[in-house]
Specification:
By secondary structure, the chain is α/β, with parallel strands linked by helices. Helix content is 31%, strand content 33%. The chain contains 6 helices and 14 strands. Strands 1, 2, 5, 6, 7, 8, 9, 10, 11 and 12 form a 10-stranded mixed beta sheet that branches. Strands 3-4 form a two-stranded antiparallel ribbon. Helix 2 packs across helix 3. Bound molecules: 1-O-pyrophosphono-5-O-phosphono-alpha-D-ribofuranose and uracil. Uracil binds next to helix 6.
Length: 214
């Protein structure tokens, strides 16, 4: 279901249902409602794949018949959507990890310079002891993701995973260069960026398509 790509910091999710859903996201005729639903389904799969490596502690549980062994996640999980578009991935992750805490990073890419501008940051305490999952559907130039990871590391986050829907080769390389410890889980690796910093073939503007602001 997952495959190491030629980029050593990238895990690509290879699943027929995910490929079907990526196609729905790419289609310019997909409605906002269908777009959101497909983002949630892919986020479910990403949550399963990312959590495969999480540590467990043993616990006891009483069934109606007897006491038996159970398990709990060893570390708290913190989801950090990058505003706005990352918000669309939250529901799919919470369906699998309902007790996750949430932080928010507000970043907007300046369309002329392509540099990310920060406008909001709020995170739970103890990031250093948590499994931190950064959520953003698009890794284009990599400027936004790299800035978001800088913020999280300044707040002592150590185990950071980046969950994404589409990545460009340029963005993956930038993240590897600036944050080699962060593994990217993505449902697709696209061809290239265009001169405006959009991913090709891509899906357009993820925020606009998620929120209907086209
Ligand atoms: C999009 C996307 C990423 C960023 C990726 O957000 O959700 O955060 O662009 O581009 P980069 O890798 O070149 O930095 P955008 O800035 O459009 O903001 P929005 O989510 O509010 O629409
Ligand atoms: N942000 C998007 O929403 N889409 C892109 O293709 C690139 C950056």
């Amino acid at each position: 279901m997952k495959k190491k790509s030629t980029h050593q910091n990238l895990v690509l999710i290879q699943h027929p249902l995910v490929k079907r859903d990526i196609t729905i996201l790419r289609d310019k005729n997909t409605s906002t409602e269908m777009f959101r639903a497909a983002v949630t389904r892919i986020s479910n799969v990403l949550a399963v794949e990312i959590s495969t490596a999480f540590s467990l502690t043993k616990s006891k549980v009483k069934t109606p018949l007897e006491l038996t062994e159970g398990y709990k996640l060893k570390h708290e999980v913190v989801l950090i959507p990058v505003l706005r578009a990352g918000l669309g991935m939250v529901e799919g992750f919470l369906q699998l990890i309902p007790d996750a805490k949430l932080g928010h990073v507000g970043l907007e890419r300046n369309e002329a310079t392509l540099q990310p501008m920060s406008y909001y940051l709020k995170t739970p305490k103890n990031l250093g002891k948590s499994e931190v999952i950064l959520l953003d559907p698009m890794l284009a130039t990599g400027g936004s993701a790299s800035a978001a990871i800088d913020f999280l590391k300044k707040r002592k986050a150590k185990n950071i995973i980046f969950a994404c829907l589409l990545v460009s080769p340029e963005g993956v390389e930038k993240l590897f260069y600036e944050h080699p410890d962060v593994i990217i889980f993505s449902s697709a690796l696209d061809r290239q960026l265009n001169k405006n910093g959009y991913i090709l073939p891509g899906l357009g503007d993820a925020g606009d398509r998620t929120f209907g602001t086209l």
